[in-house]
Amino acid sequence: MPRFFAEMIDYPAACIEDTASVRHITGPLRRREGDELAIRVGLQGYRARISSVRAGKVMLEIIAEETLRDRSSRSVHLALCLFDVKELEDSLRSVTELGVADIHPVISARSSIRSITGARFQRWEAIVLEAVKQCERRTIPVLHRPEALPELVRGEARQWGRRLFAHRDAAQALREVQASDAGIVIGPEGGFTEEEVIMMSSDGFVAVSLGGTTLRAVTAAITAVGLLGCES
User: Fold this and answer.
1) 20 to 30 A Cα–Cα from 110, which one of 2, 32, 122, 167?
2) What is the CB-side half-sphere exposure of residue 98 using CA atoms within 13 A?
3) What distance in Å separates the CA atoms of residue 9 and residue 41, rounded to the nearest whole number?
4) Measured at the alpha carbon of residue 115, what is the angle toward residues 155 and 126, in degrees to the nearest 5?
């Protein structure tokens, strides 16, 4: 059962009024007055009972508080060089469920997509929120606006605890990296250019291998977040 985003009106009263959620609750889930729902207000989870459904709004009464948790205490930052839109959207869902802290869409030299419309970016934000709703994680990952790879490397990425980029021929394996805060750049289907590898390496990034086989970008992104976020 998903945990829906709600607004507190006057505790213990709360409501859900975004159209998609109301339709989901009253349609496929077939929830009616008196039924219970899992909701969240900010970072706090609650068990609530539906008090009424009217005019596209679900009114709720809080029953109890419920603790929300993250999958891992580690902070994992993911930079994805743009590739096939459908596969990229699949990766957004999966890495959100795996606990990624933030996601940077990146335009690299071999990216098959060179720009993102406002409508497409809003869809990506909705995908991330739906994944948060489904997996019940506590924090909501930040989805950054697309930027060129050099801008990421010389900007936001310098705040990452460990800076990594996926490279098939790297001497170090990603599974060997142990860090409480790390970020990784996943290249496009055509890989990084030699100039991009030199640029990242000279700025302190370390090349890491995800294994002996060549992974598609979507698989590499999911694998990287899963390995970096795994606590022993």
Assistant:
1) 122
2) 23
3) 11
4) 85
pLDDT reported for residue 232: 61
DSSP 112-180: S-----HHHHHHHHHHHHHHHHHHTBSS--EEPPPEEHHHHHTTGGGGSSEEEEE-TT-SEEGGG---S
Which pLDDT value is given to residue 101? 97
Which DSSP letter does residue 107 get? E
* Domains with residue ranges and CATH for the chain: 3-66 (2.40.240.20), 75-228 (3.40.1280.10)
Q: How far apart are CA 139 and CA 43, in angstroms?
A: 7
DSSP-assigned beta bridge partners for residue 197: none
For residue 169, the model assigns a pLDDT of: 87
Q: How far apart are CA 151 and CA 198, in angstroms?
A: 15
- Mean pLDDT, contiguous 10-residue spans, the chain (232 residues): 94 94 94 96 96 93 96 95 92 97 96 91 96 95 97 96 94 92 95 96 96 90 94 68
The span from the CA of 200 to the CA of 129, in Å, is 31
pTM, to two decimals: 0.91
Give the Cα-Cα-Cα angle 75, 219, 107 (nearest 5 degrees): 75
E-strand ranges in 3-153 read 3-5, 7-10, 13-16, 36-41, 44-54, 57-66, 75-81, 102-107, 142-143, 147-148
Residue 74 neighbours by CB under 8 Å, 6+ apart: 99, 179, 180, 181, 182, 228, 229, 231
DSSP 229: T
Please give the torsion angle defined by the CA atoms of residues 117, 142, 140 and 180, in that order, rounded to the nearest 10 degrees. Answer: 150
